TrEMBL record:
Pfam families: Peptidase_M18. This is M18 family aminopeptidase. It comes from Halomonas cibimaris. One of its GO terms (molecular function) is aminopeptidase activity. Belongs to the peptidase M18 family. Its EC number is 3.4.11.-.
Length: 437
């Protein structure tokens, strides 16, 4: 990938991040890009008629997606890429309206393991999906994106909290309700009606239900004297979703390739559209029935002949907290993708799948790194072990290194985006997956 192509890729990533404040928006934006490249949408509620050599995608709950490229011949194996569409944040409660000191505020729930302190004093927009009822009784689900500052969570002045810099705990119930309007009588529903009318032209509809969350409206940016960094919300893990789409679009179509982007990873993946749910297995069964061997044995053969690369960002060596890393396993930003390894299977990588990825990176001319947590620290996890457990596919965990994971604004390396695209493109075009088993 040339320097110019790399810059174009980063620009596309920033556009995607800016336009995808929620998993529903991210899935919609990925779907639009796939459709523009010739992918056909499938519906799970209908019969499928799949054609060898064609490209398809299917969504579940509008927030998870599986897209796949079928080979021209029989489907004997799949090069799978896994990512997730959700990020930690602040979600509205169902009855969110509340008042304090003459201000309209909205009550929130913390979604996932969010870093709370960075949410203070940010320009917050509101986005998600809203279900409305039309005058004729028809229900409709619409996406809403109020992409301007409509709320803020103000900090308390240090003069009134002298211990604010001494590790004081933050109470999300009592201290993190965003402020929307100076009023002791305004409510959320009229505001939603106004925003729906402005964005969708929806008039005379009843709001039946919603799933909405706040987000920082500050756009993504390239940071640093040489613009070697990308700063944005939701790099974990929309960066991997974006790179997975890039690789799928760039593949030559000779091999079977699949991208799965699950929702709900940040809260354990236990849902119908999460990695612990049946979404991927359901799709694999239908692929096997239509373009594979069709039997239960051939499904096992297909899965065991395939390989899954679970892509979720890794912890980069932090210049201010270098002691948080093992001395020999501190991934550097802009030094290539990271293989994530954990002896307790918090990551799914083993020596066979790790060797396969190292060989892929060697052939693609991409540097590769390894991450292991300190022996005296706990370890996070990803969709990799969950997917491997659910369907038994050989799996490894990789990701680009980043700082400030789970913050409202995270940081990764500009060059690492191109590195991961190159590696995953080489993976989906690789004929031999023998090293991964």
């Amino acid at each position: 990938m040339t320097q110019g192509q790399s810059a174009e890729t980063v620009n596309r990533l920033c556009d995607f991040l800016r336009d995808s404040p929620t998993p529903w928006h991210a899935t919609r934006n990925m779907a639009r890009r796939l459709e523009s490249a010739g992918f056909t949408r499938l519906e799970e509620t209908r019969d499928w008629a799949l054609t060898p050599g064609a490209r398809y995608y299917v969504t579940r709950n509008d927030a998870s997606m599986i897209a796949f490229q079928l080979p021209a011949g029989p489907l004997a194996s799949l090069r799978m890429i896994g990512a997730h569409t959700d990020s930690p944040g602040l979600h509205l409660k169902p009855n969110a309206t509340q008042y304090a000191a003459g201000w309209l505020q909205l009550g929130v729930q913390v979604y996932g393991g969010a870093l709370l302190a960075p949410w203070f004093d940010r320009d917050l927009g509101l986005a998600g999906r809203v279900h409305v009822r039309h005058a004729d009784g028809r229900l409709e689900s619409v996406l809403l994106n109020v992409d301007r500052p409509v709320a803020i969570i103000p900090s308390l002045a240090i003069h009134l909290d002298r211990e604010a810099n001494d590790g004081r705990a933050i109470n999300p119930q009592t201290q993190m309700a965003p402020v929307l309007m100076q009023s002791d009588s305004a409510a959320l529903e009229p505001l939603l009606h106004a925003w729906l009318a402005r964005e969708h032209g929806l008039e005379n509809v009843d709001i039946v239900d919603f799933e909405l969350s706040f987000y920082d409206v500050q756009p993504p940016a390239q940071v640093g004297v040489a613009q070697e960094l990308i700063a944005s919300a939701r790099l974990d893990n929309l960066l991997s979703c974006f790179v997975g789409v890039e690789a799928l679009l760039a593949c030559d179509g000779e091999q079977g390739a699949l991208l799965v982007a699950n929702d709900h990873e940040e809260v354990g993946s236990a849902s119908a559209s999460g990695a612990q749910g049946p979404f991927l297995e359901d799709v694999l069964r239908r692929l096997n029935e239509q373009v594979g061997g069709g039997s239960e044995a051939s499904l096992v053969q297909l899965i065991q002949s395939s390989c899954m690369i679970s892509c979720d960002n890794a912890h980069a060596l932090h210049p201010n907290f270098a002691d948080k890393h093992d001395d020999n396993h501190g991934p550097a930003i802009n030094q290539g993708p990271v293989i994530k390894i954990n002896a307790s299977q918090r990551y799914a990588t083993n020596s066979a799948t790790g060797a396969l990825f190292r060989d892929i990176c060697r052939e693609a001319g991409v540097p590769v790194q390894a991450f292991v947590t300190r022996a005296d620290m706990g370890c996070g996890s990803t969709i990799g072990p969950l997917t491997a457990t659910a369907i038994g596919v050989p799996t490894l965990d990789v990701g680009v290194p980043q700082w400030a994971m789970h913050s409202i604004r995270e940081t990764a390396g500009s060059r690492d985006v191109a590195y991961l695209v190159q590696a995953l493109t080489a993976f989906v075009q690789r004929a031999d997956l023998g090293g991964g088993r």
